[in-house]
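In response to reviewer comment 3 from the previous cycle, which asked for concrete evidence that the modeling workflow produces usable outputs, we include below a single protein chain processed end to end. The sequence was submitted unchanged, and the resulting structure tokens are shown without manual editing.
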Amino acid sequence: MDLAVVGTLLAGVGAVVGGVVAYLGKRGENATARFNSVTDQVQEELGRVKDERDAARAELAVLQQQRKEDLVEITRLHIKVLNLGGEP
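The workflow returned the following structure tokens.
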């Protein structure tokens, strides 16, 4: 084999290796893009869930305050019944 044949074979191998590298690089790029897309979706969903959680906590705080007020009213009425001579 002379030097020209070896050079041609090396160029052919280089072209094949270059094609494989380009193919794998594109697959990696696509995988990264998909991963970023999924990550963005998860972050948006997390933000929505946190907003819902905060709204639920606010509603719970209102309900707990209402419960406290109701217990105070019930206690007041029990005392009034006792003062009037009845049994609660």
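Residues 30 and 44 are 21 Å apart (CA to CA). We consider this sufficient to address the reviewer's concern, and the full set will be provided in the supplementary archive.
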